[in-house]
Fold this sequence. Notes:
Blueprint: H1 4-11, E1 14-24, H2 29-38, E2 42-48, E3 53-60, H3 63-74, E4 79-91
Antiparallel strand pairs: 1-3, 1-4, 2-3
Amino acid sequence: MRSPEQYVQSLEGEYHISSVIVQFKQEFHCQVNQILTDLEGAEIRGIDEDQGKMVVVVESETERGMVSIIDQIKEIQGVVNVSLVYHQVDDEE
């Protein structure tokens, strides 16, 4: 079994990239769009206003950071659901 220090060292040098589908109430489109535009680590890559959906790419140096960004998206007023579609871990090298 690895020690906590060994586990943390094994995570160093990782870079997490994920994409999520954000479903939102149409009347909150502008607000959700603005907050996501300002949210560090999140980038809107596509919007379907009629369906109330966005594709958002989330990037972070840690898994915990990625989850934190996704949790922040879930808390935005008007967001109905956030679904993880893709998650990749790369070496930063």
